[in-house]
Amino acid sequence: MKLEINDLRKQFTGPTGPIQVLRDVDLIMEAGDSVAVMGPSGSGKSSFLHIVGVLDTPTSGSVQFDGVDPFSLNEQGRALFRNQNIGFVFQDHHLLPQFTVLENTLLPTLAQKSNRATPDDARKLLERVGLGDRLGHFPTQLSGGERQRTAIARALINRPSVLLCDEPTGNLDQETATLVADLLLEVQGEAVMIMVTHSPEMAQRCQRQVRLSGGSFVPM
Ligand SMILES: Nc1ncnc2c1ncn2[C@@H]1O[C@H](COP(=O)(O)OP(=O)(O)OP(=O)(O)O)[C@@H](O)[C@H]1O
Ligand SMILES: [Mg+2]
């Protein structure tokens, strides 16, 4: 998957008028590339990731995945595109409390029409993230690191070609954060990975580091 972002802009309308959060953002990534996005609170990191994850729309500019512009699709088409191509790991895992580790991991497969990952695939993936003995646990019965590892398994179950992580280790202690980062880089494979992080150690693990400043990427 080749990701190509050109002249991306995002403007929000706040109570006191428009806020220009992103301007002239350009990024090109090839399969297997990883980029860390840093920058102070409020600099637009999550806004950027939400647009690349097709969870929000750009004000202008283009985002193309192998030449496909998901924003030209209707709502249903976008949802399908997201489901088939994008794995998103949120800072705050976003697991559903009423479902087990195995069920949470399988949720994204429900929308797949063909080549759907099976419960056995999910089990193997959960073993890979070190949760082989926690399949029947509910999120409240897990540690923070275990919840985040479940969220990673859920993000990977549909074999996404784009892996987006918004401060995936933000709520974890140093040691667990290192383990989760190790895991992300290990499972990334040929996916394009963008990781938003405040941690310089985490950022150094990615191939490239950029900083959002004044709405644009500046090299570090
Ligand atoms: N829906 C919205 N409406 C209006 N303003 C918004 C909206 N979403 C975000 N903003 C504003 O856009 C700016 C960027 O927000 P964003 O969440 O992208 O920052 P961030 O870099 O992820 O910060 P943090 O490190 O704290 O997570 C902030 O000033 C925020 O107030
Ligand atoms: Mg954020």
Strand content: 25-35%
Give a short account of the largest sheet: 6 strands, mixed
Report the C-alpha radius of gyration, rounded.
17 Å
Helix percentage: 25-40%
Number of domain units: 1
Which series of helices and strands comes N to C? EEEHEHEHHHEHEHEE
Question: In the CATH classification, which architecture applies?
Answer: 3-Layer(aba) Sandwich
Query: What ranges have pLDDT less than 50 throughout 5 or more consecutive residues?
Result: none
* Mean of pLDDT: 94
Bound molecules: adenosine-5'-triphosphate, magnesium ion
Neighbour order of strands in the largest sheet = 5-6-7-3-8-9
Indicate the CATH topology: Rossmann fold
Distance N terminus to C terminus? 25 Å
Structure explained in plain terms:
The chain is of the alpha/beta class. It has a single domain, classed as 3-Layer(aba) Sandwich (Rossmann fold). 31% of the residues lie in helices and 27% in strands. It contains 7 helices and 9 strands; from the N terminus they run E-E-E-H-E-H-E-H-H-H-E-H-E-H-E-E. The strands form 2 sheets. It has a 6-stranded mixed beta sheet with strand order 5-6-7-3-8-9. A hairpin with a 2-residue loop joins strand 8 and strand 9. It is globular. The site of magnesium ion (MG) has 2 residues, from helix 1.
Topology, element by element:
Layout: E1 3-14, E2 17-29, E3 34-38, H1 45-52, E4 60-65, H2 75-85, E5 86-89, H3 101-106, H4 119-128, H5 144-156, E6 162-166, H6 174-188, E7 192-196, H7 200-204, E8 208-213, E9 216-219
Parallel strand pairs: 3-7, 3-8, 5-6, 6-7
Antiparallel strand pairs: 1-2, 1-4, 8-9
Helix pairs in contact: 5-6
The chain binds adenosine-5'-triphosphate and magnesium ion (MG).
The site of magnesium ion (MG) has 2 residues, from helix 1.
